[in-house]
Design a protein that fits this description.
- By secondary structure, this protein is of the alpha/beta class.
- It has a single domain, classed as Endonuclease Chain A (Endonuclease, Chain A), CATH 3.30.870.
- Helix content is 37%, strand content 12%.
- The chain contains 11 helices and 12 strands.
- Strands 2-1-10-8-7-3-5-6 form an 8-stranded mixed beta sheet, with helices on both faces.
- β5, α7 and β6 form a beta-alpha-beta unit.
- α4 runs parallel beside α6 and α5 runs antiparallel to α6.
- The protein is globular.
- The protein starts with a helix and ends in a 34-residue tail after the last helix.
- InterPro entries: Diverse_PLD-related, PLDc_3, PLipase_D/transphosphatidylase.
- Belongs to the phospholipase D family.
- This is PLD phosphodiesterase domain-containing protein.
- One of its GO terms (molecular function) is catalytic activity.
Length: 434
């Protein structure tokens, strides 16, 4: 059955063709009819194109610009996104699973792979047989880390004094040597033996400049790293009268002319952690560690001070080529970095991305000839995200699990603190029962 609408349409077309498109002998002229239909289609297409162009004249984004815009946005994200990445850590290179096994070839072997080595500073006044010194020097390790850095250097520090300022231009150890020489080797005008005052002063100058040399060299290598385009960030204790942080201030305020550092301000970005403000009037940021290129780590007692390179007994550890440890340590640095913003407050809970899976009960396992395990503790507890072992708990756990002996080497060992200004300086320690 044919629908009514189609019947009327066919009748209309038939009548229209009969009236208007007939030849002289009465037959339908289909040629003219088809040409008119073709003209109608062409005119319709031209009209639609004209309307589309008029519409696009008032459009902000042209259709032809869409592919170019997408490509430009993609390039922008690739080039500039790392600059706005506050964390700034190469998380794509981290290789460990939640079972605690590091899959980043962190093996206790030599060569270009993972290495864990002791680092030590022996005071210049102490003389040892060279064969008895087996550890790397702090200065040599810092120098290699700075020279090998390609992408980033993140430093957490107490204070900076690599270039000895004029106000503290003497060393008590060198002074002791000079006075000893003056006492026992006084110059005798008669015999002309011993050292005259001028000779002693010259000796003092030479020795002092040698001792400060390593600190100055380290300072210059930080600048050289920045000149190569290495991003340097420093989280440090708030400057004080005693520790004005002049070196890090210099890094922050002096800019490089290198085009590679076009988007960086200063040689380094510096943030000050105001511990008294964060901890109700007490505390300092006493941490000293480096993270280089998201894979090399230094943790130790050495301050960013020239005396820590030549005059003070320091001990630390350097870990090469292990992103697993570097990533876990970076979470601690990230907390310092967040708290270094002016007006920062300790949150009730730290973000989940700062939590760690590794502690005394669940250490990170490093594959080697014999399996080795490691975890990083931190203090105070308010700075620790979920899973992080507190320093005091870690020390107690290690001592409780000792089988034969415990050797302790510390700066101060007493049930009190000598650094607090208030009278309430008694320390209720977790170590008392040990």
């Amino acid at each position: 059955m044919i629908p009514i609408g189609e019947v009327h349409l066919c009748a209309f077309v038939k009548s229209f063709v009969k009236i208007k498109f007939q030849t002289q002998d009465g037959r339908a002229d289909m040629t003219n009819f088809e040409m008119d239909l073709f003209d109608t289609k062409i005119n319709s297409y031209a009209l639609e194109k004209e309307e589309s162009e008029q519409c696009c004249q008032h459009s902000i984004i042209k259709p032809a610009c869409v592919p170019v815009s997408i490509i430009s946005l993609f390039i922008f994200l690739i080039v500039f996104f790392p600059l706005f990445n506050e964390d700034g850590f190469d998380t794509g290179s981290v290789r460990y699973d939640r079972n605690g096994y590091c899959t980043d070839q962190c093996r206790l072997i030599t060569g270009n792979q993972f290495r864990m080595q002791l680092v030590e500073t022996i005071p210049s006044i102490l003389i040892f047989d060279n064969s008895s010194l087996t550890s790397l020097s702090t200065y040599e390790v810092w120098k290699k880390l700075l020279d090998d850095a390609q992408v980033s250097i993140d430093v957490a520090s107490f204070y900076w004094n690599l270039r000895d300022p004029v106000a503290h231009s003497t060393s008590w150890q060198v002074i002791a040597i000079v006075y000893t020489i003056q006492k026992f080797l006084k110059y005798s005008p008669t015999t002309r033996d011993g050292y005259c005052k001028q000779s002693i002063e010259l000796y003092f100058t030479i020795v002092f400049e040698f001792l400060v040399l390593q600190g100055n060299d380290t300072f210059e290598r930080f600048i050289a790293s920045a000149e190569r385009g290495v991003r340097i960030r420093i989280a440090q204790n708030q400057p004080t009268t005693i520790f004005p942080q002049l070196d890090s201030k210099y890094f922050a305020e002096n800019e490089s002319q290198n085009s590679l550092r076009l988007f960086f301000v200063g040689y380094a970005t510096v943030r000050n952690v105001d511990m008294p403000e964060l901890m109700d009037g007490n505390g300092i940021l006493h941490t000293k560690f480096w993270i280089v290129d998201s894979r090399h780590v230094y943790i130790g007692s050495a301050n960013m001070d020239w005396k820590s390179l030549t005059e003070v007994k320091e001990l630390g550890i350097v870990i090469w080529n292990c992103t697993c440890i570097a990533n876990d340590l970076y979470k601690i640095f990230n907390i310092y970095w967040r708290l270094g913003v002016r007006g920062a407050k300790i949150p009730y809970k730290w973000p989940l991305n700062l939590r760690t899976y590794f502690n005394f009960s669940h250490p990170l396992k490093l594959l080697s000839v014999k399996d080795a395990s490691v975890f990083i503790s931190s203090s105070p507890p308010q700075f620790n995200a979920k899973g992080r072992e507190d320093d005091s708990d870690a020390i107690v756990a290690v001592m409780d699990n000792a089988h034969e002996f415990v050797h302790i080497s510390v700066m101060d060992y007493m049930p009190a603190t000598i650094y607090r200004t208030s009278n309430n300086n008694t320390l209720v320690s977790k170590f008392q029962h040990l």
